[in-house]
Amino acid sequence: MQALQITLVKSWIGSPEKIRKVLFGLGLRKMQHSVVRKDTPEIRGMIFKVKHLVEVTEVEQAS
């Protein structure tokens, strides 16, 4: 199963409330914090909204 490692690399300070809610929805709270999420269309859409603030890498997740 494919998974995505998402890392917050830029600060969300000064960003609109919608962007902050997307970051919190992904589970990103602090700079350089990483989370691993399943590769789903919903997660991809969230990443697209905040692509200027995050770094994404694909990882192989054991099922």
From TrEMBL:
Coiled coil: none annotated. Residues 4-54 form the Large ribosomal subunit protein uL30-like ferredoxin-like fold domain. GO terms for biological process: translation. It holds the Pfam family Ribosomal_L30. Signal peptide: none annotated. The keyword Cell membrane does not apply. GO terms for cellular component: large ribosomal subunit. GO terms for molecular function: structural constituent of ribosome. Keywords: Ribonucleoprotein, Ribosomal protein. InterPro entries: Ribo_uL30_ferredoxin-like_sf, Ribosomal_uL30_bac-type, Ribosomal_uL30_CS, Ribosomal_uL30_ferredoxin-like. Transmembrane segments: none annotated. Part of the 50S ribosomal subunit. Belongs to the universal ribosomal protein uL30 family. This is 50S ribosomal protein L30.
